[in-house]
Amino acid sequence: MDKEFNTIDDFDLENKTVLVRIDINSPVDPSTGIILDDTRMKLHAETVKELSNKGAKVVILAHQSRPGKDDFTPLSQHAAEFSKILNIDVKYTDSLFSKNTTQDIQNLKPHEILLLENVRFFAEESLSAPPKEQSESILVKNLTPYIDYFVNDAFAASHRSQISLVGFTVNTPSAAGRVMEEELVTIENALKNVEKPCVFLLGGMKPDDSIDVIENVLKNKTADYILTTGIVANIFLWAKGINIGDINKDFIIDKGYLSMVDKSRELLNEFPDKIVYPKDVAIDKEGKRVDVDINNIPNNPIFDIGVDSIIEYAKIIRNSKTIFANGPAGVFERPEFALGTEDLINAIASSEGFSIIGGGHIAAATVSLGLENKMNHVSSGGGACITLLSGKKLAAVEALKNSPKET
Fold it and tell me: What is the reported pTM?
């Protein structure tokens, strides 16, 4: 892809103060408050360590969860865990722009690292607004005098236009970190240089996002096949006139996705040979998995695609040269309904095609199966990845492109 934004390579960071936004939002045990998984910290360790090695004074902005959630915690524990991963002491301050914080930033020496408090403790962080407006916030105004550069490495949050992601780019020379750079280069290059046949496997619980992707990649002729699973498949089955049972229809309506049925019907009419929906599904019957033909679905919850559909989908995947996958095939948290998700991940892993796994649940399932190294790319951000696939811009990336190139 054409390089439209700065990277770490474009700045001389020796003895400079660099504010870096990363995404180390981690699963936390609600009963103990202990971090359960450090995957995201390990992911961003390369960027942070490189900044430190280049002689920068590194100041980190990050978030953990959001207000009202059990895992909405301070970042003191993250600092301790990050110190172990980096093998460098990560200092921590329990505020964002107090006098103590700005003093801590000024006291940093080259190679040292300081983690600021959970940026979502600052209420305005939850507001979405254009970069210029966000640059007028107290957070940006108070920290900007103490920093030389801003680095955004938080690809997973880059579809959001929040203060910590776009506000600093207006007046501070800004760059993409290594995670951000790799994600953008890999996904955009794959979309621009698609080897055929190309298949998109789309499921999960956010059908509006997936259906936007379907519309985009079919109309621009990127995809040869769309394999639908999860609630996405249920919507297409309903759109096709299949009786999926009132319980499944009510679920779609209650989630606010009824309008997606009409949109799916239009896509089926326009691309009848491209969109593949299940020929059988797995229902929950008294707590057990039962596979049924789509023409005989009883009024029971659909929790997975059926075995015959898995076989058909796996064959298409193995014959494809480019594979994009986003969203699990069913309720994979329950072992009896994990079959579709796990078998299709295995099919992708054993294929010879170039594979990109979207973030979120399907990435977690891929890692839990130990197959992440069999994929060409496992994205760190489900929302950001699917935004790119749907042909939309990422707010934080656009902000990087428009930032000052140097002071």
Answer: 0.92
